[in-house]
Amino acid sequence: MIGAIKKIFLVALLLIVAALYYRGSKNPLQLIPYPYLLPSSQVRLTPQQVQEINHSQVLIIGDQMGVSLNRYLPRIIKESSSVLSSKLKAFSLARSGDGIHRTIAKIRQLKKVPPVVIFMGGSQEQQEKKFHLADKKTIMTNLRWEKNEIIGSLIMTFPWLSRLIYTPINYIKLKTKPQIDKKYYDARETQHMRVLSYRLYQRELRQLHQEISARGGILVTITAPANLELTPKRICLDFPTPLQEQQLSQVERLLEQKDSKSAFRSLQQIENPTHINTQFNYLAGKIAINLGQMAQAQEYLKLAAIYDCTNLRVNPIYNIILKKFANNNGLLLLDFDRLVNNHSRDNILFFDQLLPQPIFYYLLVDQLTNSITQLLQL
User: pTM for the complete prediction?
Assistant: First the structure.
């Protein structure tokens, strides 16, 4: 009898060991359970870039929005240098297509960073495929495990435990250059992907701050201006009924005829208007602008932008996440989005679909110059 129990125990133990080995062999060693793999060899910096960064006082990082600052760098350098005791040296690592995950990979290759690091991104976070939608629940669960203080501390102390604690998924192996995800996703799939993208961005933002602080830098954040005037290209989630489509078309015609009051009355007659119907919010925002209700207009237009299913525009949610993170961690934040959209009564805010008019960049440069000189004189 005792012999049989021992055999059962040994078999059970072997099965557990085998299961743990299998689980561990499927998982990479990672402190943070990101659903993608991005080896440093895929984003390696050149020796010249590292040398330039080592001799700079300011480093600009981010995506296409960070790149947009490059043409104003001479102005930033000139204005800052007039206050500082020596000429300011600045370098930009920003690159179009770089989600925050690629920015982190670049920072991790540096032993130290300049005293001031300016992050201006969040406009291309959904363009590169970083996870499989089928793994969403598992990814969220793994992130919750990592967030748990006890589990997180254990993994930090014994990194190999991550192979056993995190549930394996089908990891995305990212390439050297960002690959735009061209696959078509329906409205519901898009919204599920966005929810996970927002969650990943929160964790990546925290890591970016930690990596920069550990290398002796102060992180300065800038929100990306959302062009709220853009007409939504795809409606997410709640589609209008045939009757609602007729009513919305009537509202559009009245707006074209510059009859905002009649358009507003027609909009009020729409039954069961949903707060996540992109077209409804966009039209409501346009009417509010024409009626001079600017604060209400911005709220409607932000909702329209958030639930526009296209990924080729700035999504206000990333700015909300950035502002909350900066506030909770005592970081300096320059609200470029607010700076631009607070002038919504003016004629044309944006030069094209993405970039604000140069006048707003000049205002941002003034704020940046003040911030840079104050931080460097501490």
Answer: 0.83
